[in-house]
Design the sequence.
C-alpha cells in the first residue's frame, strides 16, 4: 500500500514538473498578478490530485488546463482585476525580487499590455493558442465552445492585437 | 508588424516560475498529497487489509459532523485546534503532526520539531486543566505523548552532540526554557484548582521537572564544550543575533497584544524585557573584551528570558481570560444552585475548588 502511495505521489509530481511552467504562464497572462498566478497553479494541482488515479484521464494537459481555466474564471468573478495602469503605478507586481521573476515581468510586459487591452473572451483564447500552444480542439474542450467559435475568436483576437501593436 | 507580434509571443514562452517558486509549490503539493493519503489510510484502515464490509462497519459509527468535515476537505484543518478527548484529536496527532514531521530531515530540525510537540502537549494539559477538564484518562494520554516527544528530543540531542555542540546547546536551552515556563504556568493553574485537577497536574509537573533536570545537564555540558572550543567567537556572535531577533520578536508581540494587557502587567513585562536588554548589553561588553565564553552564556540567557516572557504572556491572555469565562459559568451554576436551595452541595464543591482564579505572574 505504501509503495502504491509513493508511486502515485511520484506520478503526480511528474505531471507537476512537466506542466508547472506552462500552467503558470497561462495564469500569468490571464491574471494581472504573478502572486495570484502562483496561487492558481498550486490550487490547480491540488484539484488535479483529487481526480488523479480516480478516473481515467485521456489528455492530462487539457484536463489540468481545464481546472486552471475554471479557477481563473472563478477568480474573475470574485474580483475584477486591477487595470494595467494601476499595476504600472505600483511598479508592476513581480511577486518577489528574484532575478528570474523580474526578468519575466520585463519580458512579458509589452505583450501583456497589449493582451490587457483585449476583452477576456479574446485574451484567454489567444493565451491558450499561442502561449500555451494548445490545439483548437483542446481549447474547445477546455472552454466548452465549439471548434469553429474558438477559431473565429482567435482570428478576431489576433486582428485586434495586430491593431494595438501598430498603434 | 505581425512578425513583431510573433516575436512577442515567442518571448512570452520564456516566462517561467523561478526554481525557488517551483520548489516551494512542489513542496506544498507534496505535503498536501501525503496528508491526503494519510487521512485516507487512517479513515479506511487500509493497512489492516479490511474487507469492504468491515470498512463500512468501522465508518458507520463515525459522527455525522466528521463525515461532513471530510466531505468539505477541512478535516485536518479542523483537527488542528482539538484537545485530547475531542473526536478529531487523533487526526491532529496521527496525520497533521506526522506529516509536518516529515519535513524535518536533519537531527537539528527533528529535535526542534519534537520540541514544538512537547510544547503542544503541555499547552493542551494547561488548557484542559484551566477549564477543569483534565481527568485521569486525558492526563495519561498527554503524559505518555509528552514523555515520548521529550525523549525524542534527547535522542536527537545525543546524536547531534557528536557533531555540533553549539546547535545541541541551543536546542537544549530552548527546551529547558520552554519546560521552565510551562512549569510556572502549571503551578499557577494548580494553585487555582480543586483536588481532582491537582492530582492530575501533579504527575505532569513531576515529569516536567525531571525533564528540566536532564535537559539542563545537556545544555551545560554542550555549552562548556562550545566555550572550550576554537569557534567560540562565532558561536557568541551567532547567539547575539539570535538573542536580538528573539527580543525584537517579543517586543513586536507585546505591541500587538497591547490591547489585551493591563497597565499593571505591562509594567511587569517592560521590567522583564529590560532584563533581557541588559543581558544583551552585558554580553556585548564581554564580546568587545574578547571574553567570548561569557558573552555566549549571557546572550543565551537573554534569548531564554525573551522566550519565557512571550510564553507567560500567551498563557496569561489565554488562561486568565479563559478562567473568567469558567468562573462566569460557575457563578451562573451557583446561582441556579441557590435557586434550588441546595446550599450543602455548593459549599462542598467550593471547598475543593482551590482559589478559583488563575493568576500568572510575569515577574519572577
Sequence:
Amino acid at each position: 500500500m505504501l509503495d502504491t502511495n509513493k508511486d502515485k505521489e511520484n506520478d503526480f509530481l511528474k505531471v507537476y514538473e512537466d506542466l508547472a511552467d506552462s500552467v503558470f504562464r497561462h495564469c500569468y497572462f490571464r491574471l494581472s498578478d504573478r502572486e495570484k498566478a502562483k496561487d492558481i497553479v498550486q490550487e490547480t494541482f491540488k484539484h488535479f490530485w483529487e481526480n488523479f488515479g480516480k478516473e481515467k484521464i485521456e489528455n492530462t494537459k487539457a484536463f489540468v488546463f481545464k481546472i486552471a481555466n475554471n479557477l481563473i474564471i472563478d477568480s474573475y468573478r470574485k474580483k475584477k482585476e486591477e487595470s494595467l495602469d494601476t499595476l504600472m503605478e505600483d511598479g508592476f507586481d513581480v511577486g518577489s525580487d528574484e532575478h528570474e521573476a523580474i526578468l519575466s515581468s520585463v519580458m512579458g510586459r509589452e505583450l501583456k499590455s497589449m493582451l490587457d487591452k483585449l476583452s477576456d473572451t479574446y485574451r484567454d483564447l489567444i493565451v491558450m493558442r499561442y502561449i500555451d500552444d494548445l490545439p483548437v480542439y483542446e481549447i474547445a474542450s477546455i472552454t466548452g465552445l465549439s471548434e469553429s467559435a474558438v477559431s473565429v475568436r482567435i482570428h478576431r483576437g489576433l486582428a485586434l492585437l495586430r491593431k494595438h501593436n501598430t498603434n | 508588424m505581425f512578425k513583431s507580434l510573433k516575436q512577442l509571443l515567442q518571448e512570452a514562452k520564456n516566462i517561467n516560475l523561478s526554481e525557488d517558486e517551483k520548489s516551494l509549490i512542489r513542496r506544498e503539493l507534496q505535503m498536501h498529497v501525503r496528508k491526503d493519503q494519510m487521512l485516507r489510510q487512517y479513515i479506511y484502515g487500509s493497512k489492516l487489509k479490511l474487507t469492504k464490509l468491515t470498512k463500512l462497519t468501522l465508518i458507520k459509527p463515525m459522527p455525522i459532523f466528521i463525515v461532513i468535515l471530510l466531505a468539505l476537505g477541512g478535516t485536518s484543518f479542523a483537527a488542528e485546534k482539538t484537545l485530547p478527548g475531542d473526536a478529531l484529536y487523533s487526526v491532529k496527532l496521527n496525520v497533521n503532526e506526522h506529516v509536518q514531521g516529515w519535513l524535518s530531515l536533519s537531527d537539528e530540525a527533528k529535535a526542534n520539531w519534537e520540541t514544538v510537540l512537547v510544547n503542544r502537549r503541555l499547552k493542551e494539559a494547561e488548557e484542559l486543566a484551566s477549564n477543569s477538564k483534565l481527568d485521569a484518562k486525558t492526563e495519561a494520554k498527554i503524559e505518555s505523548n509528552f514523555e515520548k516527544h521529550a525523549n525524542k528530543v534527547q535522542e536527537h540531542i545525543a546524536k547531534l552532540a557528536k557533531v555540533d555542540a553549539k546547535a545541541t546547546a541551543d536546542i537544549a536551552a530552548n527546551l529547558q526554557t520552554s519546560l521552565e515556563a510551562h512549569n510556572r504556568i502549571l503551578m499557577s493553574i494548580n494553585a487555582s484548582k480543586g483536588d481532582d485537577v491537582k492530582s492530575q497536574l501533579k504527575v505532569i509537573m513531576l515529569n516536567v521537572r525531571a525533564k528540566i533536570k536532564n535537559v539542563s545537564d545537556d545544555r551545560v555540558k554542550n555549552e562548556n564544550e562550545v566555550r572550550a572550543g576554537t569557534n567560540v567567537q562565532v558561536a557568541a556572535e551567532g547567539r547575539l543575533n539570535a538573542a536580538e531577533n528573539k527580543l525584537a520578536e517579543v517586543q513586536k508581540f507585546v505591541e500587538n497584544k497591547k490591547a489585551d494587557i493591563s497597565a499593571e502587567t505591562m509594567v511587569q513585562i517592560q521590567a522583564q524585557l529590560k532584563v533581557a536588554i541588559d543581558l544583551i548589553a552585558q554580553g556585548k561588553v564581554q564580546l568587545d573584551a574578547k571574553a567570548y565564553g561569557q558573552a555566549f552564556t549571557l546572550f543565551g540567557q537573554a534569548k531564554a528570558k525573551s522566550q519565557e516572557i512571550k510564553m507567560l504572556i500567551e498563557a496569561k491572555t489565554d488562561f486568565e481570560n479563559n478562567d473568567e469565562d469558567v468562573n462566569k459559568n460557575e457563578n451562573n451554576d451557583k446561582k441556579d444552585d441557590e435557586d434550588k436551595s441546595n446550599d450543602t452541595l455548593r459549599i462542598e464543591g467550593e471547598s475543593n475548588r482551590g482559589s478559583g482564579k488563575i493568576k500568572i505572574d510575569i515577574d519572577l
